[in-house]
Amino acid sequence: MRRVFVIVIAALLFAGCSTAERPEGVVERWLLALNQGDAGRPDRYASSVASTAVFPGWRSTDPGAFDVVEVGHSHPCGYRGPMICDVVVPFRVVLEDGSELRSDALVGRARDEGPAPTRVFTIVPARTGQGLPSEGGPPIGSAPLGSWLEAFLVAAALVAAAELVLRAVRGSAPRR
Predict the structure, then answer these.
(1) How far apart are the first and last CA of the chain?
(2) Burial, 61: exposed, middle or buried (Cβ in 10 Å; 0-12, 13-18, 19+)?
(3) How far apart are CA 25 and CA 50, in angstroms?
């Protein structure tokens, strides 16, 4: 019985070790890597075509060319072509010289790559109505009260489960 309990707890804990990435996170990491120039290795997150479209001299520039990087929430993608587009992620980049680029990143994978990691494969002109957080869109870090309550309940359940495991281990330990 105790072995089954430990296996169930381990399975629940390891279920949180997912490799799925939020598309907004992929776009944000790409833009932050692009801001570091070639040293940031933006090719891990996007094609060089997409990187060059956002920042043409990224390979030979010093880090810190972006003043502002803002990423919005993803939306379903309607693009069909050689790439499988999962979502569209709006973003805004302001360079140190004050020039601004607003665009949408198409995030997905190549059809022949199978379950490859999602990447930014191209950018397209920004669609209207895709609000960024600074324009009245939902803040990235906001969570409704229900999410906080759910997190509290999960934490309480984990503490209770840990207490049960400790009691079971203490009860089965040999007495001296």
Answers:
(1) 24
(2) middle
(3) 16
* Residue at 29: amino acid letter: R
Report d(CA 85, CA 97) in Å as an integer: 32
Q: In this structure, are residues 81 and 92 in contact, taking their beta carbons and an 8 Å threshold?
A: no
In the numeric block, which tokens belong to residue 60?
A: 């030979």
Tokens describing residue 105: 């990143």
Residue type, position 48, single letter: S
Alpha helices in 2-43 (DSSP H): 2-14, 23-35
* Beta-strand pair 100-110/83-95: antiparallel
Tokens of 19: 């490799």
* pLDDT > 60? residue 157: yes
Residue type, 91: F
Q: What is the pLDDT of residues 9-41, one digit of tens each?
A: 666 666 655 556 788 888 999 999 998 887 888
